[in-house]
Design brief:
Strand content: 25-35%
Structural class: alpha/beta
Number of strands: 22
Largest sheet: 9 strands, parallel
Radius of gyration: 20 Å
Number of helices: 10
Distance between the termini: 31 Å
Shape: globular
Length: 380
């Protein structure tokens, strides 16, 4: 039995809309009341006064690590789940990368959260069935054609379900896409050298998402539209965006946003283990990385994941995409949930109390898991 929490005079963001000056009661892990008028405070309840914005917690569907915690290192997902509470993240998909098969299987067998941290909704497998033509920061020989035997081994090893997998369209036949769907996996196009025709065929076959849109995929040309052209043409596809100011410039981010019809922008961090660490040299996934306080790069200058936090991505969405705060919060909470096959949720009477309270400038003040305060910003 958790302590009831009474939020007074807060704005409520839900479903991309903002409800002004609400009173919200949380009890027994659920939102029990959302009222436009004052409500009675239960005995013993914690009272939290506005101003502020109360919203469903953020969900990061693409994160490799932060502050030295590495999803690929057994034992690190638990402390990472506590670390991300500071960003207002209440659920995430630890994201594995293409490494030798034994390392992949060892990582999958150790993906467990912490009871005091954000929920682990499953795993995002960013590889290994990707294209060496678009390796991003990884060595091209890390990727391989689809291997059904390895896939079965991955399924068997995973203690948390593989809920999302990034795939290269040109490396999967239609029958293999169908089999992966039958295994309950959402497929996301990325690290792909696919032509427009190959990417379009993959979307038509049921690939519903793209991984870090514009990055590590064939770009748009007016005579060769590439994977980006197929994405822009299909407004029903969900698209990850890394809004760190480095991976994507503002104009293409806005173009992508306005082309989404029934599909959504899904904000992600793509944060890697050296993110949040002091400037210097680090090693991750067998690569030497340089952290400069703003970016994380290989020695040749190529970006190697990001140092972004998901709450910062929300703030940039407001600035770059010109959307209201409630819409930006939707892109980092309900949209990612829906994109991986979960109920999108939202903050309403009866909903689970995995919540974030933000200040008026969209900086997290408090993070709740199951109605329990798991992180709170200290006064400065």
């Amino acid at each position: 039995m958790s302590t009831p929490i009474h939020f007074r005079h807060v704005d409520v963001a839900s479903g991309g809309r903002m409800l002004r000056d609400r009173h919200v009661l949380v009890a027994n892990g659920r939102v029990t009341t959302v009222s436009p008028t004052p409500i009675e405070t239960p005995a013993g309840a914690l009272i939290v006064n506005g101003p502020g914005i109360l919203a469903q917690g953020l969900v990061d569907t693409h994160i490799h690590g932060r502050r030295g915690f590495d999803v690929m290192r057994p034992g690190d997902v638990g402390p990472l789940s506590v670390e991300v509470l500071k960003q207002g993240v209440t659920g995430f998909l630890p994201t594995i990368v293409a490494t030798p098969s034994n390392d992949i299987l060892a990582s999958l067998s150790a993906v467990r959260g912490d009871g005091c941290g954000a929920r682990v909704f499953g795993v995002h497998a960013e590889g290994p069935f990707l294209s060496p033509e678009q390796p991003g920061m990884f060595p091209p020989d890390a990727f391989r054609p689809y291997d059904p035997a390895l896939w079965l081994d991955m399924l068997a090893a995973a203690v948390s379900p593989i809920r999302l997998m990034t795939v290269a369209a040109e490396r999967l036949a239609r029958a293999q896409i169908d089999q992966l769907h039958a295994d309950g996996v959402t497929l996301s196009l990325g690290h792909t050298g696919a032509t427009y025709e190959q990417a379009a065929a993959a979307f038509d076959a049921g690939v519903t998402r793209v991984t870090h849109a514009f990055n590590a995929m064939t770009g748009f040309h007016h005579r060769a539209p590439g994977a980006v052209g197929a994405l822009l043409e299909r407004g029903h596809i969900d698209a990850e965006l890394i809004l760190d100011g480095l991976h994507v410039a503002a104009p293409p981010a806005r173009i992508l946003a306005v082309t989404r019809t029934s599909g959504s922008i899904v904000l992600v961090s793509d944060s890697v283990p050296p993110a949040g660490c002091p400037p210097g040299d680090y090693t991750w996934a067998g690569r030497r990385l340089r952290v400069d306080g703003n970016s994380i790069r290989l020695s040749n200058g190529r970006l190697a994941g990001s140092a972004l936090t998901l709450d910062a991505a929300v703030r940039r969405a407001v600035d770059w995409l010109g959307v209201e705060p409630a819409a930006a919060l939707y892109m980092a909470s309900e949209a990612p949930r829906a994109s991986i096959g979960l109920d999108p949720g939202g903050l309403r009477t009866g909903s689970a109390a995995d919540l974030i309270l933000l200040d008026p400038h969209l900086h997290p003040r408090m993070t709740l898991i199951g109605g329990v305060v798991r992180w709170q910003r200290t006064a400065t």
